[in-house]
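User: My advisor asked me to double-check a structure prediction for Myotubularin before group meeting. I don't want to rely on an old file, so could you generate it fresh from this sequence?
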Amino acid sequence: MASSSTPEYNSNSLDNSSIKRTLKDGTNWEQNEEIPRLPGETRVTDKDVIYMCPFNGPVKGRVYITNYRLYLRSVENDPVVILNVPLGVISRIEKMGGASSRGENSYGLDITCKDMRNLRFALKQEGHSRRDIFEVLTKHAFPQSHNLLFFAFVNEEKFSENGWMVYNPMSEYRRQGLPNDRWRVTFINEHYGLCDTYPSLLVVPYNATDDDLKKVAAFRSRNRIPVLSWIHPETQAVIMRCSQPLVGMSGKRNKDDERYLDIIREANRQISKLTIYDARPNVNAVANKATGGGYEGEDAYPNAELFFLDIHNIHVMRESLKKLKDIVYPNVEESHWLSSLESTHWLEHIKLVLTGAIQVADKVSSGRSSVLVHCSDGWDRTAQLTSLAMLMLDSYYRTIEGFEVLVQKEWISFGHKFASRIGHGDKNHADADRSPIFLQFIDCVWQMSKQFPTAFEFNEQFLITILDHLYSCRFGTFLYNSELLREKEKVTEKTLSLWSLINSEKSKYTNPFYSKELNRALYPVASMRHLELWVNYYIRWNPRIRQQQPNPVEQRYVELLALRDDYIRRLEELQITNNSKIPNSSASSTSPSQMVSQVQTHF
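Assistant: Sure, here is a fresh prediction for Myotubularin from the sequence you gave:
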């Protein structure tokens, strides 16, 4: 069993601290307003309700609904109860009770959220309050189902940084040393004619022509041909990604695809075989032959070695998260915690994803072999594996900027179906396409950050903020399924990037223990004994669970860093002032930056 200890219960369990904490989302209070509002956010309606708090019992309050959020404030101030829920977080809205309901608080609304919580509101039967709230919520929580714009398109916030400038594909490939004499950049997909779910710019083997790429595309699911994600700076081994080959039950072969994989293998020049990692369980890959898919058999690909990584599909992951939610919200059964957690299989799935990524990274680094990664369509498990392997091998991706680039590149530009997997603005709660694939990736990153606390520039709040805005629809970053659709909707022109928010207040998301010198490859321990449930994310809404408190040493360290920065700033100001008073003085030959370097203090 995993090393997840039973969550600690908070003796002051009724203080609603976890509920009040939701206010810390970057919003501002406006004068003479009962609710916080963002620029571009407008109030739609408000009603008196009774919030059926699973921790405190019934709470009288007033609920305000805007075009961005549901906001509740209790009438009583001792304790004050506040809910601040972006409408994009809502997955389902159901009416509770009917005209004949007579029980106390038995008439109202049940709201299911995507962030591990459920809400219940009781309303009076007279006055059509429930109908009004239901209609407004349904309309604005599911704009795609009502031909409305996402809030991101009316958000008028201003930030000092432009997050859309973070990722430039050509700049990122140049950082990796590409193109070179073995790999070239192709614009064959500039108008998305080759593959409508791939980015416009691709890196492919130098010896493969664009005509070759077209022929290969016909034999790969969704035309997602093998393309380069990352190249090792020393071994020149590469991580490639693609979708499954269209082998089918008859065992079809494609000479162009076989030759293309040979060209990829030959570009390395160090290893005689290309390693293929199929993320699926073997039995699933075989079953996919019945629908025209399949895998690379050794008869057709004698110069490749194939390994199955046994990572389950989106449906298994969705059910696993549902089970996890059942045991963490609203109540945590302490006496059976470990067995309940084990029954969800959530950490087992995290283990399998991490184990697969470790194999990919180790093969490229230690094995000096190029690898090809795919699942079925190459936009779910494939993205998990390539991005985690790159995170393990390349310290740049462990910086705040680098991680943003990694997400933009391997997830957003390469067509992870965010709209389908999250269900942005869609009322179809039971859609079989929904699945927590990106959440699993972020969980894996958190597991790594726990094992290597000085290797990542970003902190836990950075990861939680990304997940919160994965659902919120406040930014355009995660909207739509592909680069093609985002260009069609002019997302970068009409919406803001999540990275604008984060990069405008980086100190909030910076790990004070980060060590820039730790640029080696990181291989986390993917044993169940070393994996933990991410309590500060999955159980954060339960005020009875004691959240992990900030380390006092870390707090003091942050305070000292701030004090040092303040002294450095004052020193620079004094130097500038002195220089202006003593023109052309040799005594002022030391520059502010030189003086600053002399007073750098290592705590």
